[in-house]
Amino acid sequence: MQCHDIARKIEHLEPHALPRDVARLCLLLTNLVDDIRKLEDDSFLCGAWQEMGLRLQAATDQHAAMTEELEALARSDPQSFTAEQVWTLLRAIKVQSQVLQLYVGLPAMDV
Length: 111
What we know:
Elements: H1 3-13, H2 19-32, H3 42-74, H4 83-104
Helix pairs in contact: 1-2, 2-3, 3-4
């Protein structure tokens, strides 16, 4: 199975998807499975798509919440950071690594 085959299946399942969204889903789905041939099965593809959608939504929600915390942190004086503010930075790194893990297929960092 090639990427264009997966893209055709995604376009069939989601005919109004933008090309960039189809490409993103191809990447995310191929990173999710250990054997790309599994995506030939439409029911497996639908299940994988739903799982990836949940993972991506969770990562997106975490990223949005972390962005708000980082924006508040950016307005403060770094010389007077508290331990909690340092932990906020560490959580931000972890959240970002989770988002990157979805796209590159590597394990997320443990922080």
